[in-house]
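Sorry to interrupt, but I need a hand with the structure work. Go ahead and set the record down below:
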Amino acid sequence: MPRILPDDEHNQAMSALVHPESWPPPVVSGERYNLVVIGGGTAGLIAALGAAGLGGKVALIEKHFLGGDCLVTGCVPSKGLLSAAHVAHLAAGADAYGVHTGGVRVDFSEVMARMRRIRADIAHHDAATKLAEAGIDVFFGAGRFVGPDTIEVNGATLRFARAILATGARALRPPIPGIEEAIDNEGVFELTELPPRVVVVGGGPIGCELGQAFRRFGSDVAIVDAAPRILNNDDADAAAVVAEQLRSEGIALHTSTKVLRFERVGEDRLVVAEKDGAELRLTGDVILLAIGRAPNVDGIGLEEAGVSFGRAGVEVDDHLRTSNPRIYASGDVASRFKFTHAADALSRIALQNALFFGRKKASDLVIPWSTFTDPEVAHVGMGQDEAAARQDVEAFEVPFSGNDRSALEGETTGFARVYADRRGQILGATVVGRHAGEIIAPLTLAMTHRIGLGGIAATIHAYPTRMAVVAALGNAWNRTRLTPTAARVLSTLLRWRR
């Protein structure tokens, strides 16, 4: 049985829900399953519950914990830390609001205990008993294909009409000398004492989020990345806003820096890197590795099943079907969008196509993403570089400094921007600022249902809210419709009506 540290009451409670020690193995009758799912993270749970809810005979196989990376070592625990770090930061800056706290002290062990308690409370959504009550045969163990329509797990043989691979991904650990000195997202949430010095290798979302959190708790933090800037997948000027904030909080950013090796000297851990041809040595008590994700494709018998895969994961067509027409794949193991909400949406497509000869396409999805730094960065669709390369795309931008609610709350950093065609149809959007992850939602809705900027401008937004920046984007597009010729015509008409 997998273990997660520390072995306290909260982690024991979570484990009892999502990998109960005494779970009885289901009895295999030999009857073919409509669907067998390998992997009990978000993608696998959505597929299994959906198929069972439609009356199918379903089995789900999970090697570790139901809920997967999101529950145990990803979204849930990380946002638990970020919420505490946000409170610490607000309290430290409360004097600016006329609120005098008299100093702030962070008890890291209490922060981590709170995270573990909330994670255990959330775990009931993914409980094994919930799946069993839904009619799903839940197997805990390592499932492996032994043929094009057969899987073995714990000595049992499961035959299936269709299968969905949802084995997810894990932290990438490349063969850098001394890499055993670094922890990743599977180890960082097991900490119980605040490390005085943290060196984060990777300036993507995970590295920036956790780096900022540890800094706000009181650690000295440095972030190292080989790319020329942090958040390399987001618009450059949006990433620059976050970089400026991180530096203002005392985080050292070492970009265009190549890690050569990790070392340990006594209790110290060192990152030895190269920048501009010179050696750079960074010392920490913890080295946090956050340089990407690797798909879980090993040891599950993909060759025996006739399923093609590569470094990027399982290969699927636009309907999420693998090279074996009986087997589909969903979530992090088969998608470049390694987000919980993407895994959810993709699994619904995979399930419909697998069981009901559907022709739903993954390429039709409009998938946003959000990085939960402070300020947040959220994005959907076309980005800055692509928009700049096209003559038929115009950008409209509204700064949060012009938003009354942002001004009243003292949080005016950032902007909202859309890329639109000449008809006002939204092709992409970027938001950087407080609550960007929520503000991107109506823009994603508009893209999904082809509601143009004119429709957004015609929608009444409550005042005072941050969401008013979305209305302001629509109004900015509306103003471009008043051409000089139209302005002259209207001016003449109004003179006649005096």
About this structure: The mean pLDDT is 95. The domain at 375-480 is CATH 3.30.390.30 (Enolase-like; domain 1). Residues 75-92 form the longest helix (18 residues).
